[in-house]
Amino acid sequence: MDERQELGTAGHGPGLSGRRTLLLASSGLQTVPLLRAMMPTMRGRALAFLPQASYADRYGVVSRLMRQCWQLAGFDVHVIDLVGGHAHRVRDELEACDAIYVCGGNSFYLMRCLRDSGVVPTIRAMVGRGVPYVGESAGAVVACRTIGYIAPMDENVALPGHVHPRGLGLTAYRVVPHVSGAVLGDAARTILEWHADDPGFVGLRNDQVLVVRGASARVTTAPVLTPTAWQLP
């Protein structure tokens, strides 16, 4: 059964558009059926796939496998090179896409890539006009306003000296992924204990997704998925 936990207003704030659609998760697998429900016609639609965080993480190859999952689901997947691409071409590639998927990995390295490539305003503008943003693990973390809180889970390999490095600012919720997980579960518990009195921190197990649509937000527990669940009929 699909379990839902409605959240309060901690995710609201100035400059956050009522048209935004965010799917923020520990595991990208759980986001596939949710995005399909929001975009019934997925075949041939363009999905911007940002793998940068995965290259600074020892488990990154697992995150990059989501590229094949989205292809199975019908998307025309465009891998966006934030590091080696020309800034104008990168922005044009992003602008041409119907949805954005940001891989898991190291949150600090990811945010540096996003910032240095100049795509932060582009992503914010796209989300503001209703383009879905799907973030897996680090991709979910950087959707918030600041990402320093994730330090117990991710080594700051890219933004040393930044005590409160900025995120994308798509939501005021701070996602803490991998709650109760065999990998990174202890770090998730530590973060949540440190911020136990702040309702803006949302812990997610690997089977949960924070769904933000406009001014509403909920945590959804998804069923265990098999490859047939990714594919179009």
UniProtKB/TrEMBL annotation:
This is Peptidase. Coiled coil: none annotated. It is an enzyme of class 3 (hydrolase). GO terms for biological process: proteolysis. Its EC number is 3.4.13.21. Keywords: Dipeptidase, Hydrolase, Protease, Serine protease. One of its GO terms (molecular function) is dipeptidase activity. Belongs to the peptidase S51 family. The lineage of its organism: Bacteria, Bacillati, Actinomycetota, Actinomycetes, Bifidobacteriales. InterPro entries: Class_I_gatase-like (IPR029062), Peptidase_S51 (IPR005320).
